């Protein structure tokens, strides 16, 4: 009896303990957070929020015993109920104070937050909130019920922005589609004829063997339109699409002729033939890409064409936030269509390493995963709202070796060179933490020498620093031999993948930007190196030591060095302080510098020209014109950053490569530029012109958490980049008479936006699966007591409501000014029925 009673008590205790264990913590899935912007004072650069906790559980949410983590760029948050502090990077935490009260079932608690920064747009909101219980520190629980909203009345400010757009749009003429140039980017020579040619499923492509790849790609592309791939033959038997070899044409040049009998494309190289076929695809009207057709009518043209610059680049950042392989392949299709020939692949940074390196598996085992961690040993900390869960697809992910080889093959077939970027020596936290994990694993196994083989930091370094992105542990130690062994290993592993893919590798990009002050100053390894090497007098000299070594590493492999502008600069100190000059040491070493800093007021407005004049190869990557991650305008509803100003499609279009200072119009806040700032800047010399190798547009991904956001910032901006990189200088760029130049510009701008609105964006509705490009917000202004509206892109439709509801396809079409009364909401629609952001106008 006693034994049975004892057994019953033990079972009861086990059930009770198990029940207590299960109910130990509040169910975080029942906790809702709402962040509400209640004040946004831009003149004072501050903002106020309300953070609302709502308990949907039947349990009490405790007042203590937890920490909430989140990501954001607001460095100072104050509230009596919580203490906010920086962990690292954009990673912060909230800890409750004794003022935080427990929250009963069904109740809420509102906390007022004051900050030291205003919000420029909605995408800057704090994000990625998750909770960690103090007694379970290794487990993070994402707060999935999270919402951001704003109650700040921006109606007047948004109307001011819209009114400025209305004024800009007024110069745009509506040009009939029949009068538009039908090849884009603008060709060197273009003439329309009265001829036409019908491509049918039975049309044959006659191609020499050298152009077989290009012919087959074109044939496969047309299969989506004709429901059948065109037959490719090597012997010209008559009517069809004929590819010819013409050795007199340039490397990327082509001739295209459409007659009643044939479509003929001539080129001296496979690349030229490819671009001729891309232009033929551009001649295909957008309507044909919808559904299947029995024929495609091509209107007669005579075209001679070739690019202005040999380097026409796009930089894709997959490190900050990841994009799946299919999105990369889709991007390559678009780059190829618009004759962009270089994909600068930014696959490593502080927040992620995205390519499998078989010799160093920790790079992706640790560095490709973001999620809750106490020590970065199994994965790195969350960034940009990626949260606690390492399965978050924007924070975590990488391309396997097979994936990357597939990407390389796909790009190479479409005549796109892929330049890999290994961010060094700064922006390297993902790599550093991965090699730390490798070190600790091998040390536990008693393999000290092997553990230290690829270590990227001096374990005894006591240097204190913060990078621009607020990391305090993201810089490789350039005094360590193991750093260079790491880099050589990665380069060699990448080279093997390129070789397996049959793709050329000519350059590796080694970053080189934003290394903070204070780094390496208290490193014993650096001290030891300085004692042995008399050329290194201070930490500044480590910079030249590092890039000298990296340059040697690449030259041994018949590669050249690419990097951000800093790789070609030298710090000079004098009584007035320090400043940077073009470093004479590397001027003739074929360094290719992506020069980004032309921000007005920094003193670097002419840096690209100074480096080119000094002998550096320069890729014009100017922030104010080509950083596609900058928001389109100042609207709160526009995603993107604004530290370098605002970039709409006019900014790349306005760019004059050999005299861009002439056309600088805005400062970094989007205000009219004080021209005194850019007086006396260094012009580009004739020798310097020869060193301008091309144009590149980066799309940094801090705010890009989905393919939809990626494509929104990509298009239509990339179309203006393609135009400026391929086409010759327009007449307005070189005209010396200001009035005549202004008239020429207005005509050229009208032609461009008509082509974009009526031909290219309709094409992108379906091409390569379709792109979710940005549809512009209507321009609107109050004129003579009525609301007048217009749109940046002819071919798009404005619809409106007067009852306060959002416009739909059933709403009225704007055709004439609307009475200014009540509430009017306007929205722009494309021909597929998709719409952009709305503009609300309320009569006071």
From TrEMBL:
The active site is at 514 (proton donor). It catalyses: Hydrolysis of terminal non-reducing N-acetyl-D-hexosamine residues in N-acetyl-beta-D-hexosaminides. InterPro entries: Beta_hexosaminidase_sua/sub, CBM2/CBM3_carb-bd_dom_sf, CBM2_carb-bd_dom_sf, CHB/HEX_N_dom, CHB_C_dom, GH, Glyco_hydro_20_cat, Hex-like_dom2. It is an enzyme of class 3 (hydrolase). GO terms for cellular component: membrane. GO terms for molecular function: beta-N-acetylhexosaminidase activity; polysaccharide binding. CDD domains: E_set_Chitobiase_C. Residues 1-21 form the signal peptide. Gene3D superfamilies: 2.60.40.290, Chitobiase/beta-hexosaminidase domain 2-like, Glycosidases, Immunoglobulins. GO terms for biological process: carbohydrate metabolic process; glycosaminoglycan metabolic process. Its EC number is 3.2.1.52. Pfam families: CHB_HEX, CHB_HEX_C, Glyco_hydro_20, Glyco_hydro_20b. Keywords: Glycosidase, Hydrolase, Signal. Residues 29-178 form the Chitobiase/beta-hexosaminidases N-terminal domain. Belongs to the glycosyl hydrolase 20 family. PANTHER family: BETA-HEXOSAMINIDASE, BETA-N-ACETYLHEXOSAMINIDASE. This is beta-N-acetylhexosaminidase. It comes from Solitalea agri.
């Amino acid at each position: 009896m006693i034994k049975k009673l004892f057994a019953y008590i033990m079972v009861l205790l086990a059930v009770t303990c198990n029940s207590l264990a299960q109910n130990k913590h509040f169910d975080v899935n029942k906790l809702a957070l709402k962040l509400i912007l209640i004040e946004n004072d831009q003149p004072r650069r501050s903002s106020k929020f309300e953070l609302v906790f709502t308990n949907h559980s039947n349990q009490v949410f405790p007042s203590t015993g937890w920490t909430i983590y989140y990501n954001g760029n607001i460095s100072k948050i104050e509230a009596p109920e919580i203490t906010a502090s920086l962990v690292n990077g954009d990673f912060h935490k909230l800890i409750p104070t004794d003022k935080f009260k427990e929250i009963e079932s069904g109740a809420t608690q509102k906390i007022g937050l004051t900050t030291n920064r205003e919000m420029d747009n909605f995408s800057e909101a704090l994000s990625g909130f998750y909770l960690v219980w103090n007694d379970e520190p290794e487990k993070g629980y994402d707060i999935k019920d999270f919402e951001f909203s704003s109650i700040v009345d921006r109606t007047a400010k948004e109307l001011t922005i819209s009114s400025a757009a209305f004024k800009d749009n007024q110069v745009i003429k509506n040009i009939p589609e029949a009068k538009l140039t039908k090849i884009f980017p603008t060709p060197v020579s273009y003439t329309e004829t009265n001829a036409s040619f019908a491509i049918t499923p039975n049309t044959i492509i006659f191609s020499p063997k050298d152009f077989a790849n290009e012919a087959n790609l074109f044939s496969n592309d047309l299969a989506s339109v004709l429901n059948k791939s065109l037959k490719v033959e090597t012997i010209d038997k008559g009517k069809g699409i004929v590819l010819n070899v013409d050795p007199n044409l340039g490397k990327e040049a082509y001739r295209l002729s459409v007659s009643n009998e044939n479509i003929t494309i001539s080129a001296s190289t496979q690349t030229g033939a490819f671009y001729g076929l891309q232009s033929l695809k551009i001649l295909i009207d957008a309507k044909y890409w919808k559904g299947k057709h029995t024929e495609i009518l091509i209107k007669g043209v005579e075209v001679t064409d070739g690019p202005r610059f040999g380097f026409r680049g796009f930089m894709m950042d997959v490190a900050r936030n990841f994009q799946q392989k299919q999105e990369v392949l889709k991007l390559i299709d678009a780059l190829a269509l618009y004759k962009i020939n270089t994909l600068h692949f930014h696959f490593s940074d502080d927040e992620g390493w995205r390519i499998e390196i078989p010799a160093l598996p920790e790079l992706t085992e640790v560095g490709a995963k973001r999620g809750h961690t106490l020590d970065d040993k199994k994965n790195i900390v969350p960034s940009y709202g990626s949260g606690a869960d390492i399965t978050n697809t924007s924070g975590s992910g990488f391309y396997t070796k097979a994936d990357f080889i597939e990407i390389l093959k796909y790009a190479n077939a479409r005549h796109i060179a892929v330049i890999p970027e290994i961010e060094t020596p700064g922006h390297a936290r993902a790599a550093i933490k991965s090699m730390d994990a490798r070190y600790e694993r091998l040390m536990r196994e008693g393999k000290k020498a092997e553990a230290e083989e690829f270590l990227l930091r001096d374990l005894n370094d006591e240097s204190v620093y913060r990078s621009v992105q607020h990391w305090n542990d993201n810089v490789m130690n350039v005094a360590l031999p193991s750093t260079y062994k790491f880099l050589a290993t990665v380069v060699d592993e990448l080279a093997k993948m390129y070789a397996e893919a049959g793709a050329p590798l000519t350059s590796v990009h080694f970053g080189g930007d934003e290394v903070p002050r204070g780094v390496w100053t208290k490193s014993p390894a650096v001290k030891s190196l300085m004692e042995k090497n008399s050329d290194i007098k201070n930490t500044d000299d480590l910079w030249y030591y590092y890039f000298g070594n990296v340059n040697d590493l690449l030259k041994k492999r018949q590669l050249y060095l690419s990097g951000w502008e800093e790789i070609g600069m030298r710090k000079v100190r004098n009584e007035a302080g320090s400043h940077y000059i073009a470093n004479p040491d590397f001027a003739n070493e074929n360094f290719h510098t992506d020069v980004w800093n032309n921000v007005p007021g920094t003193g670097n407005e002419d840096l690209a020209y100074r480096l080119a004049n000094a002998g550096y190869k320069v890729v014009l990557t100017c922030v104010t014109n080509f950083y596609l991650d900058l928001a389109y305008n100042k609207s709160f509803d526009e995603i993107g950053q604004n530290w370098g100003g605002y970039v709409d499609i006019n900014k790349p279009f306005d760019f004059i490569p050999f005299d861009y200072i002439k056309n600088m119009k805005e400062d970094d806040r989007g205000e009219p530029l004080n021209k005194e700032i850019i007086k006396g800047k260094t012009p580009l010399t004739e020798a310097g012109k020869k060193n301008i190798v091309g144009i590149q547009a980066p799309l940094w991904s801090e705010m890009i958490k989905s393919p939809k956001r990626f494509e929104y910032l990509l298009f239509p901006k990339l179309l203006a980049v393609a135009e400026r990189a391929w086409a010759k200088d327009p007449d307005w760029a070189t005209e010396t008479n200001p009035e005549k130049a202004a008239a020429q510009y207005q005509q050229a701008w009208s032609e461009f936006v008509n082509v974009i609105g009526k031909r290219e964006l309709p094409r992108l509705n379906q091409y390569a699966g379709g792109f979710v490009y940005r549809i512009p917000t209507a321009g609107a202004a109050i004129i003579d007591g009525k609301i007048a509206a217009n749109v940046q892109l002819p071919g798009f439709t404005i619809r409106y409501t007067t009852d306060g509801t959002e416009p739909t396809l059933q709403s009225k079409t704007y055709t004439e000014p609307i009475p200014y009364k009540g509430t009017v909401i306007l929205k722009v629609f494309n021909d597929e029925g998709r719409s952009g952001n709305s503009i609300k106008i309320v009569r006071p």
